[in-house]
Amino acid sequence: MKLDLDSVRVLDTINSQGSFAAAAKKLHRAQSAVSYQIKKLEETLNLEIFDRSEYRAVLTPAGRAILEEGARLLQQAEHIESLAMQLNQEWEPSFEVVVDGILEIAPIMTAMKSLVEENIPTRISLTMEYLGGVHHRFDKNQADLMLVKEYRRSANLLSKPLRPVECLLCVSASHPLASLSEVSLQQLRQFVELSVHDSSEQQNFEVERMHFGGERIFYLSDFKSKKQALLQDIGFGWMPFYLVEKELAGNQLVEVNYQHGSRFTFTPHLVWRAEKKLGKAAQRFIQQLSDQPL
Description:
The chain has helices spanning 5-17, 20-27, 31-45, 61-87, 105-117, 132-140, 185-188, 223-231, 241-249, 280-290; strands at residues 50-51, 58-59, 94-100, 123-129, 145-148, 157-161, 165-172, 193-196, 217-220, 237-240, 253-255, 263-266, 269-273. It has 294 residues and is α/β, with parallel strands linked by helices. It has 3 domains: 5-87, Winged helix-like DNA-binding domain superfamily/Winged helix DNA-binding domain (Arc Repressor Mutant, subunit A); 94-163 and 268-290, D-Maltodextrin-Binding Protein, domain 2 (3-Layer(aba) Sandwich); 165-265, D-Maltodextrin-Binding Protein, domain 2, CATH 3.40.190.290. The strands form 4 sheets. Strands 4-3-5-13-6 form a 5-stranded mixed beta sheet. α1 (5-17) packs across α4 (61-87), α2 crosses α3 (31-45) and α5 (105-117) packs across α10 (280-290). The longest helix has 27 residues, at 61-87. The relative contact order is 0.14.
């Protein structure tokens, strides 16, 4: 069965205009042409759409059902036409972003929201990974962009530095380390260290270099869980400052006075492939993210 979309459009116009004659005027066609379209639709569907036994043709129950379904079909067709027009303006069908979970999500969501408000046709996918897992997912999925703490640099990748992120070594205010005026490496090693696990399937990154070499390391899946473990007095660990700012101000968490330094700063990067031309949505996302602090 080949359904003629124009016949469905004619049916919809007859219903909205109230008669075959009014529909013909609206469509700038002869009334006989409008009647022919409906007759052809009835033959295609093998259904009586209009009851012509009275002076004015009226929709049959089957015709009413076809009209309701046809209205949705026309709406979908208009959406496809609009989508094609937008894609012809260089909006890509989809783009994927992989984000390191240590980064603040609010600015990323703000950039996403700006794209949504433009009603773009692009399907957006955002995946959260940790440490080496970001680059691993970027390669495995052939994603378009990654926002990453660190990555394997190469001539095949282009990058844009983002606002530096400060991290500090912290612990619960009730933890024994909290009361020490200065903490040595040996003292740190006596307690449980909390760490977020690398989410890559292949351990290609030197993630151990920030560890302190103690025998007890408690790995967690994300920084939200890590913060809860800190608050529960399970151990100590590095945290991005933005995630624990309120807890530090409220004295729930305190900074460990580690003798070799209790803070470090890293510069995250927005990374994409040099050989792949980014679509309009990805370019707009980069611009939106660059215009605000991360």
